[in-house]
Task: structure prediction
Amino acid sequence: MKKTVAAILAVIMLFAALAGCEREETTTTDDTVTTEPGTEKTDPVPESVMKIGGVGIEEFSVVTAPDAAAAVTSAAADFINLVKQAAGVELPLLTEAPAGGHAIILDVTGSDTDAVKAARAEVKDDGYAMLEENGNLYITGAIPTGTSNGMYDFLQDYLGLRFYSGTFTFVRKDGIKDLPAGLRKVFNPVFLYRNNYCTEVLMNINRFQARTKGYGTMPGGTGGPHNLGPRSGTGGATSPQPCFSDPEVFDKVLESVKKSIKTDVVGKQVINVCQNDCDVYCKCEKCAAKDEAAGSHMGAQLMFINDIARAVKELYPDLDIDILTLAYQYSEVPPDPEVVKPDDNVIIQLCLITACFTHSFDDPECEVNAKAYKNIEGWAKICKKLYIWDYAVCDSSVNHPGPNLNVLWENMQSFRNNNVIGQFQNSFGVETGEFEELRQYLIGRLLWNPDITKEEFYRLWDEFMEDYYGAAAPYIREYIDILNENSRKTGITAWDGHTAIWTDDKVFYTPEINGKKNYETMNKCSELWNKAFECQLDDVTFAHLEKSSLHFREWESKYSEDRTVKRAASAEFKAMCDKYTYDYDESLLPVGPTEGFSTEIPSEGLEFREYADGTLYVSDVGTFRAGMLVIPTKADGKTVKAVGQSAFSRATCIVEVHVPEGVERIGTYAFRGCNDMTAIYLPASLKYLGYGALGVYKTGYYSTEKLTDVYYAGTAEMWMQLYNQENAMIKTMRDLTVHCSDSDVVYGPDGDVL
Result:
């Protein structure tokens, strides 16, 4: 149950380029343009991408109050940028609704009508109200975060935006639809605490947590998940539990809790008083008697927690404080409520670590989950504040298959129907976990709104596959289905059709049949991944596929029956670890030589892939090991147009880079982690510079620590437009100078232009 946070930065926001008009006079959609005497043509009236109450979105401005909260103003800026991406129009930001115009009015303003105020009164927690009234759209919440949530739901529901990952926001044209006149919607979330705990979300690049409506209004608790040992002074987080009948233990825990309470904080506080990560509990005469009376080993523990909660309530009557405790391992079974039940200011967080993850919790055919579901129902009957700690991954390895994607919807219904108000979804602590982006996306959508239908859930899944993996999607979906099917097979492994938190990976790839390893599944999986990589993919989609394949290459290197395939998969796995996540074997490339190389001679050994138009992009460092990198203009007779996403990520041999004229794109993370790169030369032909393409900040895992000079052949104005597309929000460049054709742009230590 240990949490491992990899605080890593990543982001993506694609902006549409505005087309310039060559005519000197200003024309409107009604203008008639004369081209030659005696001939005239009428400019076509451009069709609005979407309409709000019958009015094209391009007619609207965005309005916030002059004193709007930071959560609203930052969301409004992001909102405008995302509307531009989806609709191709940049809406003005105002602090007062324009007279006679149309506005998207955010949060609480002087323009709010009685209908808006009435709708806002129905909003709870971080929910929101959305109303179309008299040509205006109002999005408002009871708190600023609720307003922000409403903005992102508007973008998602009406402009087709999909926030798939920190580095991939996509616009689905079939998701764009008009917002009807007279719309009145009040949305209140089911789960007040939402923690989609995986690196992809924790990175929080480009407001990813806000965009996915993460966390909610109920806190997750302070003090760590396993703290009774430290709080009581009897041991550490993995020590045996203290005695719950010992007055001295009670006094020490209460003193520790008092130190965790912030007396100057307004609003809800949740303090963790949680059992250690150990299934050894006190069996003294007093504790044993309490457990026996309660019919559960939670008996003595919950009596102790209730006493702590009562003491806190008495000591701090004016503060809103809840005590959170785990029902975990030995304490999962709810006690007899006639003996003990949680006080109103006690949160029970039921940990489903002993459940089967192949089947839904309410599956009547799964005898393992019959026990888990009985515990969920039992706690729901006696607990007013019930949280769930669910496991979205297998703890035996971050690359291990987790066959739970096809039961996520059913499980969320179980939680919702049993009045669960909070969830901690325990997922990946690294950024390359098995289908991490897909899993966090589906879980995030369900955490925010578990009331979507099963058909809608599978549509979201299908959309993700199509948008994220492109032409390779069918092969990846078949691979996922095969592993799910294998995990359910009975009679062929010791797991007998179930999976647990420590399931052996051989269950999925090389199950034993009649005492002999069967390689049929492994061979089929290898075939599917090979077919996926044969597809026509752009640099972004290829990077998605390659990163997702990392987990499989580890298992292929262990379980393929072909030794040649094993060796190749092992080498590929290690290389991809270096490229996408961590230094697997402490063998990053040494700094390469720069002497004896010429900027006129293209570098050799690079790997290329082809765009649909026949041009090429550099996809990987390949066998290149020099210090001076010169991107070629052609390879195999074809034009090189781009340096692909993550192409040279953590290629630590690189010292100096030369990108020639004609290259138009450098993808996200193209040179991240090239810590010995000191200078890079960029062409004026460059049209796109992805997020973190030249690294993120000056220190850390994603940085380019020694980069001090960027030489750009275009003007300073051109550079700012190029940089601002993807990098300005996070200020990825710090302590360096961009030498442009007309002047220098200098970035200070905080990323501000000096």
Observations:
- Residues 475-580 form one domain.
- The two ends are 46 Å apart (CA to CA).
